[in-house]
Write a structure and sequence with these properties.
The structure holds 2 protein chains of 2 kinds.
Chain A lengths: L1 H15 L3 H12 L8 H12 L8
Chain B lengths: L1 H21 L7 H27 L9 H4 L11 H12 L3 H9 L4 H29 L5 H8 L2 H30 L3 H24 L4 H24 L10 H17 L6 H26 L23 H8 L9 H5 L13 H24 L3 H8 L2 H4 L3 H10 L6 H10 L12 H16 L4 H35 L12 H24 L5 H30 L6 H23 L7 H14 L4 H43 L18 H5 L13
Helix pairs in contact in B: 1-2, 2-6, 2-15, 4-15, 5-15, 6-15, 6-23, 6-24, 7-8, 7-23, 8-11, 8-21, 8-22, 8-23, 8-26, 9-10, 9-12, 9-21, 10-12, 10-21, 11-21, 11-22, 12-20, 12-21, 13-23, 13-24, 15-20, 20-21, 21-22, 23-24, 23-26, 24-26, 25-26
The chains are: A mainly alpha, B mainly alpha.
Chain lengths: 59, 695
């Protein structure tokens, strides 16, 4: 039951983008460990800008 | 085991659908429709979609997807398939599948229900999945780029113009739905207005106070919007009531001003937080509605088929063929989905196998939302349904006369019944509340009220109005912004600085032009006593199906180049059907001598009446604008039909070359690279640790 709840919570966090910054840090650490990372605020700003510069919502 | 499951599905689904189609003695239960729909979606998913994936696309689980090859941790990210499914469904699901079935219910529930199910399984789901697959094989290229690469420069240009036109019409018609839902409803209006400061607050929260804490901010925002529903009820009883009591023209002015402001302020202030709220509300409400419909399984009170299939329908004019197929676009086949399927989603797919779930599955779920809207329409007393959805231009503005006319159609209703209903829902009146949103809200309030407590009917009603308005306004914001980007792209060909998306003067000019475009159609829709939804909704349906026809043409062109020619029928058949119904509907809209149906006939009829001085003064004052608008709509329909056929001819040229063995332009598909993700995927571990290739 607890494991099921944890999975559901993780799913909710991932699908809503709540843990996007943590996932970015993990990706950054393996892909380019030598380069500086964005702050949480800067990362979120960039992500939002990028999300809303294309067609992301429908009728 | 799998085969057994399939056989059981086929038997249950066939039985349920047969029951719906042939059972005529008394009202049937909505559970039949739910069971039939779910079984047929599962059959389509299990067999047809799997066959297409294996034989037509030649899905290859060992092939690296662009998400893996181009992984940058931002837009290209291999994503767990259920997460990608959630993103894709949230992107495609909008207010369209709620409104269309509500209007098409005037034909009875059967024509719309059959089209929603069959259209989705053979058309809409296939279109979405195919665009997703082909865009993914081309590194996430857009519909416009693929049209240019595969059909030629004309195809690309047609896709661009088509998208721009549909965006303008779509926003205008959705704006009209919101205006009609809020007119002279202080409770509804104040609740919808309150969502604006709530969104701004959530925007600041996510931007400055707790950056990126999406869940916290959304929970706070959803709680505040729920409070706003109760707050609206309080305002409705208080002396502030008058401050939120507006007629349609002022409300249209507010919507236009809001749309313009939302387009020129930064996204984090209004659009992004509103989108989080609307996504949560949307998914929550859809889930709640599904649970409530299954628990309550109401009887369908609307007949299976009404006399209005003959073309004299009071909600909108036109025979069931072709107009049911135009009225229900979203929920069956929606061309707009091709833009999302060839935009962000293909960059998230971790493995080619996932395309079936994300593309076909999301659309099947959206189609199910349309089925629920149809059930919400059909559980109303038909007399009540028509009293809410028929405009004063048809039955007159006197309530006594309106109920007499509607009762004479064979759908009994009384003013006492309507007054009681309006009182229960906390509204002054529910007569002539066209646009679909109020009748959907009445249907949803009845379902929720019966399932979760009857005492709160008026709260449920205004919750439903707020829910519809919030995501209509999100579509309005997002659509205006997309329209602005496309316009800037076009203007960039004439003046370099105007093409720079972040240059503020260019932002102002292009946003104003886009808002002026949809604002014009919204304004005309509001002042036209007979028109409004009757004019705009078919125009929206035609332009949405036109976009689907462009997408399916591109898909057919790609299949014929790369697979067995016979497989082109997978997209070719839905394309032929869409081309047939849109052309037939457009033809009637253009040449019909019936002023209620034909654009030019209506313009001439009104011009003659104006010249003879038989129009009452308030109608005569707006007649010149309405005459101009009907002619404009007529020319727009001709233009859209011409674009569809030019794209189809362009595609047919490629098919003929292929069948005759003539040389074709090369494929724009990205070359094969083996995946390295297989292990990570099989174990279902988080994917962000995977080493990106070609970085």
């Amino acid at each position: 039951m607890l494991r099921w709840l944890t999975t559901a919570w993780q799913y909710l966090r991932t699908v809503s983008g709540d843990n996007a910054y943590e996932r970015y840090l993990a990706h950054h650490a393996t892909a380019h460990p030598d380069q500086p990372v964005l702050t949480r605020k800067a990362f979120f700003k960039e992500r939002q800008h990028q999300k809303w510069s294309g067609i992301t919502r429908c009728c | 085991m799998n085969k057994l499951f399939g056989v059981v599905l086929a038997v249950v689904g066939g039985f349920a659908l047969g029951g719906i189609a042939f059972y005529r003695q008394e009202p049937i239960n909505s559970l039949w429709i739910v069971v039939a729909a779910v079984c047929i979606y599962l059959l389509g998913y299990r067999f047809y979609a799997a066959w297409i994936a294996a034989k037509v696309y030649l899905v290859d689980p060992t092939r690296a997807t662009p998400a893996e090859r181009l992984n940058n941790g931002r837009d290209f990210v291999p994503t767990q398939r259920w997460v990608a499914f959630g993103h894709h469904f949230a992107a495609i699901a909008g207010p369209g599948p709620l409104v269309g079935p509500m209007l098409a219910a005037q034909f009875g529930y059967l024509p719309g229900t059959l089209w929603i199910i069959v259209g989705a399984v053979l058309g809409g789901c296939v279109q979405d999945m195919t665009m997703l697959m082909f865009s993914m094989r081309r590194d996430g290229r857009s519909l416009g780029q693929m049209a240019r690469d595969e059909l030629g420069p004309f195809g690309g240009f047609a896709a661009l113009i088509g998208t721009l036109v549909i965006m303008i019409i779509l926003i205008a018609v959705l704006g009209l739905v919101v205006v009609n839902a809020m007119k002279h409803s202080p409770w509804g209006t104040s609740t919808v207005f309150a969502t604006i400061p709530v969104a701004i607050l959530v925007g600041f929260y996510m931007r400055s106070w707790r950056p990126g804490r999406v869940l916290e901010a959304s929970v706070i925002g959803v709680a505040l919007t729920a409070l706003a529903v109760f707050g609206g009820g309080w305002i409705d009883q208080s002396s502030f009531r008058g401050a939120f009591d507006y007629g349609p023209t002022s409300l249209a002015g507010f919507v236009i001003a809001y749309g313009w402001l939302a387009a020129i302020v930064p996204v984090w202030l209004l659009l992004a937080p509103r989108d989080y709220l609307s996504t949560f509300l949307k998914l929550g409400t859809v889930l709640l509605l599904a649970i409530a419909i299954v628990l309550l399984h109401p009887q369908m009170k609307m007949p299976a088929i009404t006399q209005f299939v003959d073309g004299n329908g009071p909600v909108f004019t036109g025979k069931v063929f072709p107009f049911v197929f135009i009225t229900i676009a979203c929920g069956a086949v929606s061309g707009f989905h091709a833009l999302v399927s060839s935009g962000t989603t293909p960059k998230l797919i971790a493995n080619e196998r996932d395309v079936r779930l994300i593309g076909y599955g999301s659309m099947a779920l959206e189609s199910f939302v349309a089925i629920m809207a149809m059930i919400a329409a059909a559980l109303l007393d038909p007399g009540v349904y028509f009293a809410i959805n028929v405009g004063a231009g048809i039955v007159g503005s006197a309530h006594e006369a309106a109920v007499q006319t509607i009762t004479s159609w064979g759908f009994p209703v009384t003013t006492a019944q309507m007054d009681k209903l309006a009182h229960d829902m906390g509204e002054m009146t529910l007569f002539a509340r066209t646009g679909g949103a109020p009748s959907l809200a009445v249907g949803m309030a009845s379902i929720f009220g019966s399932t979760f407590g009857r005492g709160l009917l008026s709260v449920w009603y205004h919750f439903a109005i707020m829910f519809e308005a919030v995501f209509i306004l999100t579509t309005l914001d997002a659509g205006t912004r997309v329209g602005r980007f496309m316009l800037q792209d076009l203007l960039g060909h004439f003046s370099k600085p105007l093409g720079r998306t972040s240059w503020y003067p260019s932002v102002l000019v292009s946003s104003t032009l886009v808002v002026a475009g949809w604002g014009y159609f919204l304004y005309i829709g509001v002042i036209d006593p007979n028109g409004g939804i009757n004019i705009l909704w078919p125009l929206f349906g035609i332009s949405n199906q036109m976009l689907a026809a462009i997408a399916l043409s591109v898909a057919t062109g790609i299949i014929i180049k790369n697979s067995k020619p016979i497989y082109a029928l997978v997209t070719g058949v839905p394309l032929a059907w869409l081309a047939l119904i849109t052309t037939f509907a457009a033809w009637q809209k253009i040449v019909s001598p019936d002023p209620k149906l034909g654009f030019f006939a209506s313009a001439s009829d009104m011009a003659a009446k104006l010249a003879n001085g038989v129009l009452p003064p308030e109608k005569a004052a707006v007649a010149p604008q309405l005459i101009f608008n009907q002619r404009l709509d007529g020319w727009l329909t001709i233009f859209l039909t011409a674009i569809i056929w030019l794209v189809i001819i362009d595609m047919a040229r490629i098919c003929i070359r292929r069948l005759n063995g003539l040389p074709l332009t090369g494929s724009s598909e990205a070359p094969y690279q083996p995946t390295r993700l297989e292990g990570a995927l099989a174990a279902n571990r988080p994917l962000h640790g995977a080493a990106p290739v070609g970085h």
